[in-house]
Amino acid sequence: MKNYLEYKGYLGTVEFSADDKVFLGKIQGINDLILFEGESVTELENNFKESVDDYLETCKEIGKEPNKTFKGSFNVRVNKKIHQRLFMLAAKKGINLNQLVNKSLNFTVDNEEVVLK
C-alpha cells in the first residue's frame, strides 16, 4: 500500500480526517509548509500537483530555493546494547561506526521494498 503522492520529484504525505471526510496532504522536503486536500483521491492528486506547481512558480518568481537543504548529519538514538553491538561489528570489519551506519542506510535505500515491508 502506498500512502503518499509523487510529482516532479516531490513527495506528498497523505492522511484522512474521518471527522471532516477529507484527505489532507503535506508536501515534504521543502522550505515551507504547503498543505493540500481533497474529498476524493482524484481531487487530492490534482490539488497536490497544483500545489507543487504553484510553489515552484512562486519560488522562481521570488528567487527562492524550494528544496530543503540537508547538511548530511542527523542524530540517531538507539538503546545502549544496540550501540555497543554496532560499535563491535564496525571494529570487527575495520571501519568506524559512521561508515557502518552509512553502509546500512545505503543498503536500506537501495532495498527499501525488501527491508521496509
Q: CATH architecture of the largest domain, please?
A: 2-Layer Sandwich
| Count of runs of 4 or more consecutive helical residues | 4
Percent helix range: 40-55%
Following the backbone from N to C, one meets helices and strands in this order, namely: EEEEHHHH
Uncertain stretches: none
What is the CATH topology descriptor of the largest domain? Answer: Double Stranded RNA Binding Domain
The N- to C-terminal Cα distance equals 10 Å
Q: Number of domains in the coordinates?
A: 2
User: Structural class, from secondary structure content?
Assistant: alpha+beta
Describe it.
This protein has 117 residues and is an alpha+beta fold. The protein has helices at 41-62, 80-93, 97-110, 112-115; strands spanning 4-7, 10-17, 22-28, 35-38. It has four helices and four strands. The mean pLDDT is 95.
